[in-house]
Amino acid sequence: MVRCDQESIVATTAIGSDNITRLTLRQPDDWHVHLRDGAMLAAVVNHTARQFARAIVMPNLKPPITTVAAAESYRQRIRAAVEPGLDFTPLMTFFLIDNADPAEISAGFTQGVFTAAKLYPAHATTNSSHGVTAIAKIRPTLEAMQCLGMPLLIHGEVTDPAVDIFDREQVFIERCLIPLLAQFPALRVVLEHITTRQAAEFIAAAAPCVAATITAHHLLLNRNALFVGGMRPHHYCLPVLKREHHRQALLAAATGGNPKFFLGTDSAPHAREAKESACGCAGIYTAHAALELYAEAFEEVGALDRLEAFASFHGADFYRLARNRATLTLEKRDWLVAKEFGDGRGAIVPFRAGQTISWQLREPSPASVTAAA
Ligand code: NCD
Ligand code: ZN
Q: Which one is catalytic: 266, 317, 334, 343?
């Protein structure tokens, strides 16, 4: 296998054919993940920590993370749940509420506790009832964040029930995001988990301080996946899956080499009974195989050579953090995903449960990490 120190080169080995069957890349980061708390945190965090060096941890706990002290204590619980030997840094976020205190957010950012703040429109998604009801209610905070260079992470969907659920992202861009960026032109903004052609085009044309994350499931599935032979609650997330032409636009954005687009799994675990319910929760669990799923998506469009930049460089550059030094290796090999993690009540049904994934992470070896560091 060839390994080159030049950052832009992905080391690959073709075994027996022209097809790439092994891929070594710098260790990636997950720029949007839900790690939850308590028993759920313990059940999921090592899936993330096994692959990713850092992760932006969403603050939509009950109650949400709205103080420096709460973030520090949550960060401590995350660190305590990580397996010894895994080098994983949780990057904490502030949950924006109406009339949020700019001094608290600024203090948390300058002390290195908060990396970013998350804007959930009130009632847009899971655990967002305390979210923001109008941008005007957080204007002083956004001014402070713009001055500090602190990123604003946005769940970009309107909550107006009159707007069709498949149009809520596009309408958010028109009604909320465009005016927000006009008021705060230097604010660093990440539009999270984009799902539409309109969002991909908007981000590509926006100022360099505006970027987007893309999930693996939105690269792999279109909205038909919600109804294959019946209702599929484990494919339900927000923003909801969209039509095939949107998926194609997301694939083009993710694999196009544009540094404005980077990896954010939005892995969002819920207990089986909360998903398989008359009113099932939104959220897809992908952390158990995140990088492998992105590899499948990139392979579909012949762009495996672009995976490293999307997964490991663009996000770190946007967040003004050093790129990771360690490497990971993926191998082309079918493997069977567990039907669930945990059992009985509280078990989590992962993406592709009981089915195969065609790439697999080689077990991280402490030796190789040391050698590359
Ligand atoms: C997320 C969750 O469950 O916390 N659900 C989801 O469908 N993505 C919330 C979110 O990111 O919207
Ligand atoms: Zn999310």
A: 266
